[in-house]
Amino acid sequence: MRGCFGGCSFCSITEHEGRWIQSRSEDSVIREIEQIRDKAPGFTGTISDLGGPTANMYHLNCKSEEIHAHCRRLSCVFPTICKNLLTDHSATTSLYRRARQLPGIKRILIASGLRYDLAVQDPEYVKELVTHHVGGYLKIAPEHSEDAPLSKMMKPGMSTYHRFKELFEKFSRAAGKEQYLIPYFIAAHPGTRDEDMLNLALWLKQNGFRPDQVQAFYPSPMAMATAMYHSERDPLHRVGYKSTKVAIPKGTRQRRLHKAFLRYHDPNNWPMLREALVNMGKAHLIGYGKKHLVPPTQPANHESSRRTPARGPRPGTALTQHTGLPPRSQGGERNPRGKAAGLKKKRRS
Question: Which of 288, 271, 287, 269 is nearest to 279 (CA)?
């Protein structure tokens, strides 16, 4: 399939593939799986992904082509799912079941991004997905925990995430499988303040997440958030000379701070986070308790805690400004030092 009607402001898939979902027939997909099975060297029976730009938009579209032709919504799912959008995942479920029954196919995984706000509309699809097509971990992208940044991203709130999480855990238990959700988050997105990132970090710690790989917003071409980044205005609403400015994390230090909040557990980020918490009036979050974000000291075995004794130049080493030579004087000459200075004076005379 091609296309996406999600319309996330930081993504340009809608712009270069369109909002109308173009889906291949089920037979076409099955033929390609059979070709991979029969022709791919070293094929082990596992299809690593059966999806597209989004895993669960296969054959989902507006119920009327006429309505779609006149529609001016930027997204079919934000701020709420459009009443004219078909959310029945039966075509996707049927494809999964048929592909799974092919001879020589041991397992089919779903690795494409999942729109969990659509998935919760069809619990039967979630059950099929969780029972047969998750390889232990399922990646989803809430992107943030706070409503202000989410409204600029055109993403659903965390209540939808929690609804999907309940279904995911319910069907995982029913299948007798130990599986986990891996949420993705974005740092330094337009509309994100330091306080928003702090609240996200606290949410991550409260829920036991310690992200390893995190992403910071990059103003890529054709994305709505890029216009937001450069103009400091919100193009999702009418823009005028009186429009309120959008908070844009642009400076290197602030962008690094936002990323550090996502990796609050990394000791390398603790000094920056401690300083930021003090400046934000949140020094009470520095400590060793469960309710604290970062400890007040570095680990004993951490690089920043080790003191390396100062070493002077080894005997016979030529002196430079980096190894002990005094700095230049204002007249452009070095301060005289021992015989070397005397030799220079003789040569000049």
Answer: 271
Distance CA(152)–CA(174), nearest Å, equals: 37
Residue-level length of the chain: 349
Is 64:84 a contact under the CB 8 Å cutoff? yes
Mean pLDDT of 258-263: 96
Packing angle of the helix pair 26-39, 90-100 (nearest 10 deg): 30
Amino acid making up residue 67: I
At 236, give phi and psi (nearest 5°).
Answer: -75, -15
Q: pLDDT tens digit string along 191-212?
A: 999 999 999 999 999 999 998 8
Q: Which amino acid is at 261?
A: F
C-alpha span between 139 and 134 (Å, rounded): 10
pTM above 0.90, yes or no: no
The CA distance from 311 to 179, in Å, is 53
**DSSP-based three-state secondary structure for 185:** strand
The contacts of residue 163 (CB under 8 Å, 6+ apart) are 120
Question: How many other C-beta atoms are found inside a 10 Å radius of the C-beta of residue 140?
Answer: 19
Provide, rounded to the nearest whole percent, the portion of the chain with pLDDT above 70: 87
> For the residues 48-71, what does the mean pLDDT come to?
90
Q: What whole-number distance in Å separates Cα of residue 118 and Cα of residue 58?
A: 11
